[in-house]
Amino acid sequence: MANYTGKKCFSCGEAFKDGDDIVVCPECGTPYHRECYLKEGKCINDALHESGQSWEQTQESVESENIRCIRCGFENPPDKLFCEKCGTPLTKNDTEERPFNDMDTQNNAQQTGPDGQPYGPFGRQVVFDKDSDLEGIKLDDYAKFVKTNPLIFLSNFIRFGKFGGKISINFAAFLFPHLYFLFRKMNLVGIIMLVATALLNIPTAIEYLSAGTMGFSLDIGIDVTGRVFQGISAATWYVSMALQFVAGFFGNYMYYKFAQKKIREIRSEDGTEQEIAEKIVAKGGTSWGAVILGFAVYSAIVVFGIFGVTKIFA
């Protein structure tokens, strides 16, 4: 039997799910939930019966008109200019210009980001018109500020700016929120996250040390199995996970607003276009030095925190 998962029942309009009891019209092949078909008493797709076409033929026609996003693979309706899932400008074929592309396609093929790399992944050129406006700021300024991985960030920025979304997934921000924000030079957010996550992880670190989970055990004089300590440990773990989820799902949006603020500040200053561009590049980008320093400070807070807690509970 054909796979109808995701297709819609012609009667109720609900999408079929795995395990649904599905029947099809013996004449045109239109699928229904069995209960919907019994309720109707017959196939109600009269247009197909009159035309002599089959339901499969009409579906192939509809699917062939959809535009597949070259970045995430999502099938978009033919009237969409941007991918509904990731915001990437859409094209029906390789030669058609995207809404944010320069008019000169040949020049586009030579366009690269501030790091000298093409905007597209895997050698595929996916470029945006650098003069396109996104909430009062040119995409070229965003690209200069981001510096690394511009395609990923610009696609998210377009989705935030054009469609009003705020949620996207950033695994690095989820796993290491404090280090990620410092890496992206969001120092204030990074410091807040660093101090918060370090303090919240102290009970867990004490528990691991006492249990020998890290390869060695350390008697620090605290009953980690007691109700009070277990309650504190559980509470801090949940709060820490909540911060990670916030960073993981809203980190890209926070970076988008951070980039906006910094670019506007730089643009408000006096200077030539070249000087302003250099400032944008300097203020943006990434900082491995901040990551290393942040890791050292994080470790120090945890270590001193462990000694502090042992004195309190001693």
Overview of the structural elements:
The radius of gyration is 27 Å and the shape is flat. It has 3 domains: 1-65, Herpes Virus-1; 100-163, no CATH class; 171-313, no CATH class. The longest helix is centred in the last third of the chain and has 41 residues, at 227-267. The chain has helices at residues 34-40, 46-51, 55-65, 105-108, 139-146, 150-163, 171-175, 177-183, 187-200, 202-211, 227-267, 273-283, 288-313; strands at residues 22-24, 31-33, 67-68, 75-76, 133-134, 137-138. The strands form 3 sheets. A two-stranded antiparallel ribbon has the order 1-2. A two-stranded antiparallel ribbon has the order 3-4. β5 and β6 form a beta hairpin. It has 314 residues and is mainly alpha-helical. Mean pLDDT is 80; it is low at 94-127.
Q: What about the largest sheet? A: 2 strands, antiparallel
Strand order of the largest sheet: 1-2
Distance between the termini: 69 Å
The residue ranges in which pLDDT falls below 50 over 5 or more consecutive positions are: 94-127
The SSE string, one letter per element, is EEHHHEEHEEHHHHHHHHH
Question: In angstroms, what is the radius of gyration?
Answer: 27 Å
Tally of separate helices:
13
- What is the residue-mean pLDDT, rounded to a whole number? 80
Q: Would you report the number of β strands?
A: 6
Query: Which descriptor suits the 3D outline?
Result: flat
User: How many domains make up the coordinates?
Assistant: 3
Q: Structural class, from secondary structure content?
A: mainly alpha
